[in-house]
Amino acid sequence: MQENLQDSEQSLKKSQVQILELKEQLAKFQRTVLGFMFENGQIDMGLELSENGQLSNINAKSNMKITGEQKHLLRVLDKSLARELDLEKKLAESRQSEKELEVKLHHTEQVAFHMEEAAEVIWGRFLEAENAAEVLMDISKDMVGQVQLVQFNRNGSIQREIEMKTKLQDCIEQLKEKDVALEKLERSNAEHIAQSTEVFSLREKVNLLEEMLKESQVQLVNANGCNEASQEQLSEMENVINSLKENIYIAESRAESAEAKAAQLTETNLELTEELNFHKGSATNTDQKVGLLEKQMREYEIQLQHAKSSSEASQEQQNMLYAAIWDMETLIEDLKSKVAKAESKTETAEEQCILLSETNLELNNEISFLRDRTEFLEMSLDQANNAKLESAKEINTVTKFIMDMAVQLATERERIQKRLNKLTKENKILVEKLWHSKIMDSDVDGDSKELLFSKNDQINANCTKTSVEAVTGSLDKSLQAGG
């Protein structure tokens, strides 16, 4: 803009110089005309020219008598002087218009200077915004890299979580298999216990029968040795043995009944002894009753012996039962040890599950932390994008302002161009008037005038061209700076 304004000032100065040259040429022309008139001795004129080359008043005083042709020449000269005065007035007006144009140019220079300052400020802000955008882009790239690392770590943690879940599922399946195996073991143990109880019961019964057979054989030997005549008792014992063989399952009940009978017999024996003592004390002569009582006593003693033998057999059966119970307790303890081992395995599996759950919790915490971090990074990216948008809005507003100023400059340029066109037209009109006024002069003077007018036309055209080019160049530069 400053260069264009300087060019326009130079063009104005050139136009002023050309106008001064025109004035000097006019003055020279007037002097030559006056000299020519003085040489002919026709007129005596007094000319007064100012320092600026302006013509003042011409007072022609003639002391001689003039002819009609001389009067005609004087009239022509008066007309030419009047035209020159009009031209001087128009030149003064053109100078005033030039001054106004200079003032306007100064104003436009100030506006252009302010526009340049504003453009520099805007350019600085734009550079700051670009730097901030680059910094934000670097930060966003770093944040994107961190987000990618976080996502990579997250994917690794997810894969680890999947692996841990698969391991958990495998452990759960193993635990289920172990539970199924434990159930099978328990079932087999229960079946084994049931079978062992049945076997033990059968063994106990067989042992009891064998013992009873042995006792019966011993009793038979004793009976044969003691009394060979007691075949009837042997037959009864054989019947009893057969009955015992037949009633194997009722031995315990009989032992209990034998014990009850033994208790009853002891009680009856005591009662009988008391009755004997009572009868002996009373000294009755009931010998028959005593014999009967003695027989009853013998029978009761035999029954007591049988009860004692049955009680001994029941004790042996109890001992066998205790041994079987001991064996069962040992088996139960073995099973308990196996169950304890299985429980220890389950506890270790539970501990592993707890450890896996703790690791899962830690992984979940890490994942939540990474999610929070990614959200924070996304928020920062959003803030950076918002800052970019705000800077872009500011740049748009500044560009709009610059475009408005460019439009104003364009309007000012059009106005100045119109003014220059108007001035060129007025100058052309003035030149044409001068040319018409001086057409009556000599041919040599006419040739010089034609050269002068052609020079003026070229100068005016150059001035208008340079002013237009300067304004257009300034507008183009302002538009480029705004873009």
TrEMBL record:
Pfam families: WIT1_2_N. Residues 5-32, 158-195, 227-352, 406-433 form a coiled coil. It comes from the Eukaryota. InterPro entries: WIT1/WIT2, WIT1_2_N. The keyword Membrane does not apply. Residues 1-35 form the WIT1/2 N-terminal helical bundle domain. Keywords: Coiled coil. The keyword Coiled coil applies. PANTHER family: WPP DOMAIN-INTERACTING TAIL-ANCHORED PROTEIN 1 (PTHR35705), WPP DOMAIN-INTERACTING TAIL-ANCHORED PROTEIN 2 (PTHR35705:SF2). This is WIT1/2 N-terminal helical bundle domain-containing protein. It comes from Carya illinoinensis (Pecan).
